[in-house]
Amino acid sequence: MTLLLGFVLSLQVRAFTLTDVGEAQPGTIEIRGVAAGDFNPQDWRTGNLHFVPDARSPLLVPRDGKFRNIYAPSVVETKDGWRIFYGGWDGTPSGNDRIYTATTRDFLTFDDRHTVIEHGKFQHVCNVSAVGLPDGSFALMCTAYPIANGTNKPAFFHLADLTKTITAGDDNLITMSGYDRFSAADINGMNVLLREDDQYQLYFSSFTDPGKVYRARSRDGHRFTFEGIALDHAAFPNDIKKFHVQDQDWYVMGLHMNGPDLYYALSNDGRRFTPQQKLFSHRDASDRYIVAVGFVTKENKLLGVLYGAGAKGSLDQNRIFARWLQKPVFITKADGSKIEATESFGPDRAAIHSSKPIAGMLQSPIRIPVTLTPGRAYQLK
Of 334, 329, 335, which Cα lies nearest the Cα of 379? Predict the structure, then answer.
């Protein structure tokens, strides 16, 4: 039996329903309800990950202005959705990196977009890694350039009131004991902040000491104690998220190499990570040079990735792109051919591009006979 869905209608099949819920983009069939479920360690160990690019490529572009180059997204889940922090030149009158923020409920629209940290005495403040705190405020680890010896160093900020703009200064620079190379270290965009057990964990690399990800710990975010190597033979770390599955912790680290690919590494204790694996490659020429990565999470789910990338090797024309971790969605037609959802609008809306109705067997993850109409959205439950 074929399920016709030109109006609001649902049919239950094996405890699943598919319902027409309204309009979609012209020439597009949307299947909603396909976002990633709870973190699955086996999928991440084996690399069995189905990432779908967002149909808006890029997802975020710089605001109008003379200098336009944004990257380094860091995403924090909030009670109303997510708050995104990012760095670069968001339509600024000068080519000095600053830190900005925006909010979203669904990654379809973005609000409250403004500057939160001015570069102050530094030429640049960028490469933000943000965590949410229990009181609703935010802790940010950024990099400031240049300090006295011409290197990049981590700078810590506590943002309690996002309506106010902070100006960076020397008092934001961190210190570190136990790492004798810290003074000479050039920590540029490799400064990942994690909050657990009422302490801050910093994961970092250095251009003057390459090929390793180190870790250090602090109670106040300013004074860190070096703890050792977290990952050998590593790319540049940009984010870490923690999940809990069947009485076991899982940490996922996101890394890049200013090139066409993104990587990840796994750990059960946050101290030592397994060798990095490939996450995904760039989509086309517009995101050929990937310069930053930030995971999108909701509760115990990893929903996707925002990443800064651009078409130029000069790395000064970046935008923010998105990939979403989803259940595969495809329709098998009567002749055996398959039509697959190749894009998405945010984490939960798979998109099939077609100018004509499609009849066949929908599979995601169950099998439902369907006839789907372009310009309509269907909810899978």
Answer: 329
CA distance 324 to 309: 16
In the beta sheet, which residues pair with residue 326?
A: 35
Mind giving me the DSSP string for 250-268?
EEEEEEE-SSSEEEEEEES
Q: Report d(CA 191, CA 267) in Å as an integer.
A: 18
What pLDDT is stored for residue 1 in this prediction? Answer: 35
Sequence letter at residue 180: D
Write the pLDDT tens digit of every residue in 341-357: 999 999 999 999 999 99
> Length of the chain, please?
381
Confirm if 273 and 267 have CB atoms less than 8 A apart.
yes
pLDDT band at residue 4 using 50, 70 and 90 as cut-offs: very low
Residue 7 has pLDDT above 60, yes or no: no
pLDDT of the residue at 364: 75
Answer for the pair 155, 125: CB distance below 8 angstroms, yes or no.
yes
Round to whole Å and give the CA distance between 50 and 304.
10
> By the 8 A CB rule, do 22 and 292 touch?
no
Whether residue 266 contacts residue 275, with contact meaning beta carbons closer than 8 Å, is answered with no
pLDDT of residue 368: 86
Residue 149 has pLDDT above 80, yes or no: yes
Which of 212-221, 222-231, 299-308, 361-370 comes out lowest in average pLDDT? 361-370
Q: Please tell me the distance from the alpha carbon of residue 180 to that of residue 5, in angstroms, as a whole number.
A: 66
User: Distance between CA 146 and CA 135 in Å, rounded?
Assistant: 32
The CATH number that domain 54-325 falls under is 2.115.10.20
How far, rounded to the nearest angstrom, does the alpha carbon of residue 166 sit from its chain's CA centroid? Answer: 24
Q: What angle do CA 185, 195, 226 make, to 5 degrees?
A: 35
pLDDT in tens, 243-256: 999 999 999 999 99
Q: Which residues, in sequence order, are CB contacts of 169 under 8 Å at separation 6+?
A: 120, 121
CATH code 2.115.10.20 region(s) in the chain: 54-325
d(CA 132, CA 328): 31
Other CB atoms within 10 Å distance of the CB of residue 25: 15
